[in-house]
Amino acid sequence: MKDLLLNTSIFNGISDESKEAVKKIKKRVIKYKINEQVIRAGDRIDDVCIITNGLLRCIEVSPTGKDLDAFYFSTGVTFPFYMLFGGEKYHSFNTFAVKKTTAVWIPWKELEPIIRNDKVFMNNILIFVSEFMCYSKMIARCIEYRKVIERISYWLLHLTKSSEAVYVPMSQEILSDILKVNRSSLNQELVNLQRLNVIEIKNKEIKIIDREYLESQL
Q1: Secretion signal: which residues (predicted)?
Q2: pLDDT at position 132
């Protein structure tokens, strides 16, 4: 629990009383294998999940059973606060482990009163949910563009400020899934942008060198 408190943003700055209360809650720590299903659409939402290591892929399911958009939860992500505070009772997505993943499940019935009685805790949740929803809306706007270069340009421009680099903790396969583009087309465009000295890619960071060029693609 110590590492969980240190590495997860929602616990930053909460009171010692809240930390002790969270520590006393009986939790489930589960390790998932690659491709193992974690959540099924229709499962009741009884717990908050905190990913301490790994990556989950969530596929939204429509009321008719049709698969909709896919999105990812990585290390440090906590969910589904937006559904719990929104009054949802059941999960609306199927979730699978993309890689070996460890998750901590905390009963919502016991965690909720701790959050509500700690203003810092509640503020952390508000910020986390707001950032998550803003990112989700950004991706939704991004995939409205038709061309691969347009989607890449929009994604990069809206994830960074002028002096920042984008950290991409996933493979091109996952990024292509997020942007809803062909993997080979994505790689081709990224290579071309590097050749034109528009971006620089080192390890898993992408730095924009020429923002005007990306803006001209939109």
Answers
A1: none
A2: 86
